[in-house]
Amino acid sequence: MADDVVGSQVADLQAECAEESRKSRARRQFWRLAHATLGLPAAVLAGVSGAAGLASADARVPAAVLALVSAGLSAAIAFLKPEVHQQAAHARRRAYLALEVEARFVLTQAASSGEPVPLPVYRDLLERRRMIVAGQLDDVVQRVAVGGPETGSGG
């Protein structure tokens, strides 16, 4: 295995996938927090401003200020679309995890057979990484679930 340059590259790819998976998890958590940080105050302020505006004539100005702040937070949610970013980070994480598992399988298979990792298998893994980077995440997960890389041995 020491002379298996392709196997070394597959191991590097596996490590890269693990790191990208961790980064995607952190991104998902960030966008989840951003959604809650903007959405909850917007909803509470909208309710409070409505109640304050109906409570008395003197409370109309503070109610209007609260309503404006709530509207600003709601506009930030609509502009930033944190739920979309959260879903994208989750899909990217799933794809990187699937690719990491596939790379681990390839390395295990090569180690158990005592043969180097075939170059076409590495090319297939790189193509899957390219698909993740290009945003074709469902295709990557589907390819891993259906069959994995071609080993050239007919199965």
Q: What would your notes on this structure say?
A:
The longest helix is centred in the N-terminal third of the chain and has 51 residues. The protein is 84% helix and 0% strand. The C terminus is likely disordered. Helix 1 runs parallel beside helix 4 and helix 3 runs parallel beside helix 5. It contains five helices and no strands. It is mostly helical and 155 residues long. The two termini are 22 Å apart.
Radius of gyration: 25 Å
**3D shape:** rod-shaped
According to DSSP, the number of beta strands is: 0
Name the helix and strand elements from N-terminus to C-terminus, one letter apiece.
Answer: HHHHH
Strand proportion = under 5%
- SS field, number of helical segments: 5
Helix and strand composition category:
mainly alpha
For the biggest sheet, the summary is: none
- For the termini, the CA-CA separation is 22 Å
Poorly predicted sequence stretches spanning 5 or more consecutive residues: 151-155
- Helical content (DSSP H or I, runs of 4+): over 70%
Mean pLDDT: 88
Features:
disordered C terminus, rod-shaped, mainly alpha, 5 helices, 155 residues
List the helices and strands and how they pair.
Blueprint: H1 5-55, H2 60-80, H3 82-113, H4 119-134, H5 137-146
